[in-house]
Amino acid sequence: MTPKLPIYMDNNATTPLDPRVLEAMMPYLTTEFGNAASRSHPFGWKAEEAVDKAREQIGALIGASEKEIVFTSGATESINLALKGVAEFYKDKGNHVITVRTEHKATLDTAKRLERQGCEVTYLDTDKFGLISAEQLRAAITDKTILVSVMLANNEIGSVQPIGELGAVCREKGVLFHCDAVQGVGKVAFDVEKDKVDLASLSGHKIYGPKGIGALYVRRKPRVRIAPIIDGGGHERGMRSGTLNVPGIAGFGKAAELCQQLLPEESHRTYTLRRRLQDYLFSHLDHLELNGHPEHRLPGNLNVSFAYVEGEALMMAIKNVAVSSGSACTSASLEPSYVLRACGVSEDLAHTSIRFGIGRFNTEDEVDFVKKYVVDQVKRLREMSPLYEMAKEGIDLSKIEWAAH
Amino acid sequence: MAYGDKVLDHYENPRNVGTMDKNDPNVGTGLVGAPACGDVMRLQVKISDDGKIEDAKFKTFGCGSAIASSSLVTEWVKGKNVDEALTIKNTQIAKELALPPVKIHCSVLAEDAIKAAIADWKKKKGLTEQPAAAAPKEKRVDG
Predict the structure, then answer these.
(1) Over the range B113-141, which residues count as b (16 or more CB within 10 Å of their CB) and which as e?
(2) What pTM value is reported for the model?
(3) What is the pLDDT along chain B (143 residues), one digit of tens a residue?
(4) Which of B10, B61, B104 to mutate to test the interface with A (most CBs of A within 10 A)?
(5) Pairing state of beta strands A214-218 and A288-291?
(6) Taking an 8 Å Cβ-Cβ cutoff, which residues of chain B contact chain A?
(7) Helix axes A105-116, A75-89, angle to 10 degrees
(8) Pairing between β-strand A321-322 and β-strand A324-325 as defined by DSSP bridges
(9) Rounded to an integer, what distance in angstroms lies between the CA atom of residue A83 and that of residue A88?
(10) Residue A214: HSE in the Cβ half-sphere, 13 Å Cα cutoff
(11) What ipTM describes this predicted complex?
């Protein structure tokens, strides 16, 4: 059966709002419009109740208490607040920050700004799967190190870092540990106690919640301090001023609650669907490379290089399916994915990568449609590819002197 | 990024995809671009003894705009004589396909492919002192 088109299979970019989340938000978009900071009347009390409930729901998802959740406009702000806030507050203790080459731009660009402001930043290299090790982290920590920032799961290649082992090293060395948990939370196990995480950035819209809402977990025991980056009315215990986005927060809370309830079943289901797609592609096409770790990865994430077929061309060919590519041609910069490059993937292959992100609302019918569609279109484009023809003739493409342009 | 109708048309119904015998003395082959840059075009032209392009074939590794640019030039060069074909400019290709600035390099590559294919043919025929190579770089109008 042909599923309804277009098919959304880019759930690492964003996720659709779960109808149950919208339902939880509706009162705060309509009748319960109060300001959560209004202490003097029931409009404010209702809003504050909703916010408190959401704090509990989000805290429960990550093993934190409601008092440790600071709401922000999204994970980019959370990451900025964690890195800049720690660097500022602990500047007398040290100025060294450690992160990883494959982190999201929200982390890397914030780290670059910290460098311009006098911090020293170490960017750890990863293995070919995009992972770092506890030993590698331990070796990078100095007596000036104040913060380590590592993502739970990579947004492009889906690889899941050994957060618990990294957290243990940080705890032992007395260094704060921030985890960008945006992609992994709700999909793989994550617990701030077990994983010894001091700060964690979260996003609503990656877990079937609304856009424009995020949170920063800030540990209370032992207490972690951060300097605010937004000044104003002193909301969120002074860490993030600004009137709270009550409908967004209510939705984020409900989304977190659903993730917690559904996690084991949903992980299994998205994993099964992803394997169904992956196994079909790899058994029907040659010259494919899986990007990211084969096992330690997000259940619904599949990132594949389709050698000799340019990524944007393939996306155009499967235009009824929403996916994304690490190809340069999808970005204004014309540079292929820095994440793939950091994993040692050649530029040639980086240009041919496609990311499939399977989520809560994808069906088996959709996966079966997509897998056949992709195989047909890759074959079609390879028939048009001079590189595929040359490779089939046994010509070593790396030996040709290409004129870079 | 949204694509223009003409890019989509050429991309979905590419003209003259194929391979000619590169050892045929009447066939000129131009291979331009680089896999590391995300696009490689191979244009082949079959040229009669009086210098007329009788047939053209392409294969392209690249984005939709690169495929469309190469498909378009196979149509344009067919029936032209060699000197006329060499007057095709990347700006004409870009204009015809309404390429956005970030895709102008695709049209540059297509122009280079014509020049490289004809240079290869000339070399085979002993008509030129220049080696078969990509077109002069100063003509590039990059986005």
Answers:
(1) bbbbbbbbbbbbeeeeeeebebbeeeeee
(2) 0.93
(3) 578 899 999 999 999 999 999 999 999 999 999 999 899 999 999 999 999 999 999 999 999 999 999 999 999 999 999 999 999 999 999 999 999 998 999 999 999 999 999 999 999 999 865 554 554 444 444 44
(4) B61
(5) unpaired
(6) 1, 3, 11, 14, 17, 19, 31-42, 59-64, 66-67, 102, 105, 108-109, 133-134, 140
(7) 30
(8) unpaired
(9) 9
(10) 23
(11) 0.88
Radius of gyration in angstroms for the set of CA atoms belonging to chain B, rounded to a whole number? 14
Strand partners, A262: none
A312, A202 in Cβ contact below 8 A?
no
Count other Cβ atoms within 10 Å, centred on residue A353. Answer: 26
Residues of chain A in contact with residue B42, where contact means CB-CB under 8 angstroms, are 386
Task: Tell me which of 1.10.390.10, 3.90.1150.10, 1.10.220.10, 3.30.70.3270 is the CATH number of domain A7-13+263-404.
Answer: 3.90.1150.10
pLDDT at position B140, please? 44
Tell me if A7-13+263-404 shares its fold with A19-259. no
CB distance A310–B102 less than 8 Å?
no
Nearest partner of B45 among B93, B117, B132, judged by Cα: B117
Other residues' Cβ atoms within 10 Å of the Cβ of residue B101: 10
Q: The dihedral of CA A182, A186, A188, A193: what is its sign?
A: positive
**What's the average pLDDT block by block, 10 residues per block, for chain A (405 residues)?**
93 97 98 96 98 98 98 98 98 98 97 98 98 98 98 97 98 98 97 98 98 98 97 96 98 98 97 98 98 98 97 94 80 79 95 97 98 98 96 91 75
Instruction: Compute the 3-state secondary structure of chain A and give helix, strand, coil in percent, each to the nearest 5.
Output: 45, 15, 40
Instruction: Give catalytic status of residue A179 as yes or no.
Output: no
Residue B34's H or E segment, with its range, is strand B27-34
Please tell me the distance in Å from A320's CA to the nearest CA on chain B.
14
List, for residues A133-158, the tens digit of each pLDDT value: 999 999 999 999 999 999 999 999 99
Residue A313 is inside which H or E element, if any? helix A311-317
Contacts of B134 in chain A (CB under 8 A): 403
The Cα–Cα gap between B137 and B112 comes to 9
User: In this complex, how many residue pairs, one in chain A and one in chain B, have their CB atoms less than 8 Å apart?
Assistant: 89
Chain A, 333 to 392: residues with Cβ < 8 Å from chain B are 334, 336, 346-348, 351, 383-389
Active site residues of B: 37, 106
- Say if residues B120 and B29 touch (Cβ distance below 8 Å): yes
d(CA B117, CA B45): 7
Q: What does the pLDDT read at residue A241?
A: 97
Q: Where are the domains of chain A?
A: 7-13+263-404, 19-259
Of B31, B63, B105, the CB nearest to A312: B63
- Taking a C-beta distance cutoff of 8 angstroms, is the pair B92, B141 a contact? no
**CATH class entry, domain A19-259:** alpha beta
